[in-house]
Amino acid sequence: MVYWSSKGRFLVTRSVILFGGTFSPPHLGHLTMATLAFEQAQADEVWFVPSPDPPHKQGVRHIPFHVRVNMVRALLSTDGAVVGRFSVSTLEDELARPSFTVDTVKAYKQRYPDVEFRFLIGSDSLFDLPTWHLAVELVSEIEFLVADRGSFPFELTLERVKTELPQLSATRIVMPILEISSSWIRQRMQDGLSVCGLVPNEVRKLLPPSYLS
Q1: Residue 187 Cα to chain centre, angstroms
Q2: For residue 182, what pLDDT is reported?
Q3: For the chain, which ranges sit under pLDDT 50?
Q4: Which of 172, 178, 129 is nearest to 151 (CA)?
Q5: Is 44:16 a contact under the CB 8 Å cutoff?
Q6: Phi and psi for 124 in degrees, rounded to 5?
Q7: Cis previous bond, 208, omega within 30
Q8: Is beta strand 3-4 parallel, antiparallel or unpaired with respect to 11-12?
Q9: For the domain that residue 64 is a member of, what is the CATH number?
Q10: Which DSSP symbol is given to 119?
């Protein structure tokens, strides 16, 4: 499919949503968020972009990068509706450390000049966006899709953030309130508690045993 970009400047062949994160571990909340963004933004594909070494989460014990990549692939394999539309991209692992979101976005745009990219975040991350590395430059590079989180209503959060980042372009993604985090899931796993079906067995069996101790 070939169409004009949203800014009307060039021809693109695909509309791709970048969904970055640690995914430690990936869970059904991630899959729900990506699916609703895919549908509502009428994208062609969603690329999950696991971060090898998140600069904002130094000191946190993460599952090894290659394991997290395989876990995301396993998560995507549980939903036949997204096969061929959702995939995992490891481009960020090729970038110099530390790799910030602005670096990642530029790398994708340079490697895939015929793709129109948008970046998916939650409204909690939107709230923090002004503190991101080179945030002014980042928002000039890419449009954001923002999934509503109950604690950070989209309209109010966007109004606040745009006072600091007036060039920001952001579109709301409506989704049910799923206040689920990987850190909450990690803690429950380490405590030997149920994760309420939020991590499919295909993903759980890839977890290193040491991670649950």
Answers
A1: 21
A2: 83
A3: 2
A4: 178
A5: yes
A6: -65, -40
A7: no
A8: antiparallel
A9: 3.40.50.620
A10: E
Give the separation between CA 23 and CA 7, rounded to whole angstroms.
31
Q: Which residues, other chains included, contact 110 with Cβ-Cβ below 8 Å and sequence gap of 6+?
A: none
How much is the pTM?
0.90
Which of 63, 50, 53, 119 has the alpha carbon at shortest distance from 90? Answer: 50
Helix (H, G, I), strand (E, B) or coil at 11: strand
Give me 40's structure tokens. 């509502």
Segments forming the whole domain that contains residue 131: 3-212
How many CA atoms does the CB half-sphere of 196 hold within 13 Å? 11
Residues near 53 by beta carbon (within 8 Å), at least 6 away in sequence: 65, 97, 98, 99
- In 51-114, DSSP assigns E strands to 86-88
Given a contact cutoff of 8 angstroms between Cβ atoms, the answer to whether 138 and 132 are in contact is: yes
Q: In the chain, what is the greatest distance between 2 CA atoms, to the nearest angstrom?
A: 53
Look at the chain and report how many structural domains it folds into.
1
Query: Which contacts qualify for 178-183: CB closer than 8 Å, 24 or more apart?
Result: 178/29, 178/32, 178/33, 179/149, 179/150, 179/151, 180/27, 180/28, 180/29, 181/29, 182/22, 182/23, 182/24, 182/25, 182/26, 182/27
Give the residue among 113, 117, 122, 108 at the shortest CA–CA distance from 6: 117
Would you state the pLDDT for residue 8?
55
